[in-house]
Amino acid sequence: MSRVAAFEIEYVQYMDESGQALADLPNWATEVESLEHAYKWMLLTRLFDAKAVALQRTGQMGTYASCLGQEAIGAAIGLAMHPNDVFVPSYRETGAQLIRGSRMRDILMFWGGDERGSNPPIANQDFPVAIPIASQCLHAVGVATAFKYRKQNRIALCAIGDGATSQGDFYEAINLAGVWKLPVVFLVSNNQWAISVPRAAQSASQTLAQKAIAAGIDGVQVDGNDYIAMRDTLDQAIEKARSGNGATIIEALTYRLSDHTTADDASRYRSAEEVEVYKQKDPLLRLERHMRVAMGWDEGKQQSLKEQCQQQIEEEIQAYLTAEAAPPTEMFDYLYESLPKVYLKQRQQLFDEWQQHLGAREETVDTDVKESDHV
Amino acid sequence: MSKITLVEAVNQALEYEMAHNNNVIILGEDVGKNGGVFRATLDLQSKFGEERVLDTPLAESMIVGTAVGMATQGLRPVAEIQFMGFIYPAFDQIINHASRLRNRTRGRLHCPLVIRAPYGGGIHAPEHHSESTEALFAHVPGLRVVIPSSPLRAYGLLLAAIRDNDPVLFLEPKRIYRMVKQEVPNKGEALPLDECFVLRSGTDITLVTWGAMVHETMKVAESLALQGVEAEVIDVATIKPLDIDTILQSVEKTGRCVIVQEAAKTCSVGAEIAAQIAEQGLLYLCAPIQRVSGFDTVMPLFKLEDYYMPSENRIYSAVKQTMEFA
Hints:
The complex is a heterodimer. Chain A is an alpha/beta fold. Chain A has 14 helices and eight strands. Chain B folds into two domains: 3-183, Rossmann fold; 197-324, Rossmann fold (3-Layer(aba) Sandwich). In chain B, helix 2 (44-48) links the parallel strand 2 and strand 3 (53-55). In chain B, helix 3 runs parallel beside helix 4 (91-98).
């Protein structure tokens, strides 16, 4: 008998939980600006994320998928990609979306039940968040196919979770990425839970990164709560894809500190003790500790950054809450490039019902005014 | 000009558009060197190269999902699903993504892609190769479903589908791939989508049909003419969105209507047409609408296939009943 295949999966980590460097850092990570810039986005993401949950809790927004605990991944994606690359996200990528040009009000609008939130004022061709799991992996390979055909120096980056690696579309996508040597990166945020199903019940594979091996592409595992490791690994995978050397699966080990969404209650299926363990691995704490030791980051800087973020968030929330409603007829207006005439009647019906509704509301207001006049 | 078959007309349209637009890319299983199992993409890879005629791995969801991604970059992918019976793994990509990307991004991204698939029975094929499930797709908002019934319409409608800026499911009735030949001028002229074609004018009864059944229906119309009954025959062609106005105008004139389809009867495109006539044209009718269709059974293997398929007899007897209704 002889061995026909063997493989190993590398694990990348630069900082321990206390922010202590475990190895020589890449050059960029010794520059104050680089890390402060990343930390700024991570903190903004965290504070905004908490506000988004609060808006849902107070009935001012719909169901929301928090990215609490996964901020290092979002910042690394957002800062590693070039503006004209294409980001193909899942629904837990608020941090990267913000860096890629979505405004906080756009993200709130989407989760607030308004399609306009998926049409942010961005120049790139990023995809809106994909709610069906792993389906977007194929869009990323399609985008990458177009880049390759046109010999463009661009890459597609697809973000998914650990649960998505069980889906057929994931396997079909990595398979094509391998066989066509496409400029694409698959980033798996392994946050240990797919709603209530733990990582161990999702796959018997020792790592999710090694799923790459069967597709003939590279796979690497990284500490997803270590911004420096995250960014460094992404930079390399993106550079490899951009230079025509094919796709990579990055398995980022992290933890979903939040419920699956605001409609979920994670205490039904996991212990508080487990969550406590992972709180010690918090990506923001880790980077902050590192910056305090290595770069003179202090409480004053921390406070002033926090205030700056909070002010920005408040402005965006106000913009979201006061945004003018879209006319309901918009549901017809983007169905096709131009609405087939057979649907004009339905659109008119909706328009009439809307006008009646508006009229009825005005009448109600009028009546109120008269009653108060009597008083 | 030599006459060509429907499948040759598909090939001719693909070749024309590829020659005139570098963004048109073909992808699918066996579409390259093999030229497709029905030869619809014959010689296109040798003419346009392996970058533009892509043999894919064997995975239908991947074919459509990849085409969605390509389309958002301004390419015009023409994806082939080898048989309609194998399209279902791609349902999610068609319904959740291709058909709604324009809407969900409020026009920021859109999906100019064509999915071609041979469909329908009558060629004694193995299991899963003969169904007519067009109604499943006609239900989907944001999608177009187009079915040609002749070489001329295959050429003109496929060009229109490729040039359209929204996704089109282009179903090719494989039973008539090589049944008739027509002269098809290769001038790149598209035919209109979203419109029925009136193939035969008549004043006594309206026969509404599409795909391969157009041929049986036309034969019935011709034999009716010998008996002094002038049938108007409408080829629906684009079943989604449905050009009900042309059908209603005809029914207003004739007062009688028979719908002929190969698909199973319940919740079919024929059911939708009948419902719309009932909603908007009930008072035009002198007789109940009849649907001639396949049965609400699983499509049988080919020994029983002929019993399943609507025959000229089945059509004729429905027409007779409709004409005789007092």
